[in-house]
Design brief:
The protein is mostly helical and 89 residues long. It has a domain of 57 residues. 63% of the residues lie in helices and 4% in strands. The protein contains five helices and two strands, in the order H-H-H-H-E-E-H. A hairpin with a 2-residue loop joins strand 1 and strand 2. It is flat.
């Protein structure tokens, strides 16, 4: 389905192709999770896969166009999205 969606838009550039591949990968991971056995181990692994598999595409899309400054000791780390969305105290 994800493949058809991006093909209908007319994917052409290398960046768009990578977006398509990461989206397709995320969908395929979720299908794999559906096929895992309903045991404790299968559910534990399935939850982790369901969280981390689709994140590849979202992390890639979030990184497009962002400048990562380099400090003396390596790349300057930015707080992750979850740390920025802290609720009221």
């Amino acid at each position: 389905m994800a493949r058809l969606l991006l093909q209908s838009i007319g994917v052409s550039s290398q960046s768009d192709q990578l977006k398509q591949r990461t989206l397709t990968f995320g969908v395929d991971v979720l299908r794999l999770v559906d096929d895992l056995p309903r045991t404790l181990a299968g559910q534990t692994i399935g939850r982790q896969l369901a969280r981390s598999g689709p994140a590849i595409g979202s992390n890639y899309r979030r990184s497009l166009g962002q400048f990562r400054p380099i400090g003396r000791n390596g790349p300057i780390e930015r707080p992750c999205e979850q740390e920025r969305q802290v609720g009221p105290k």
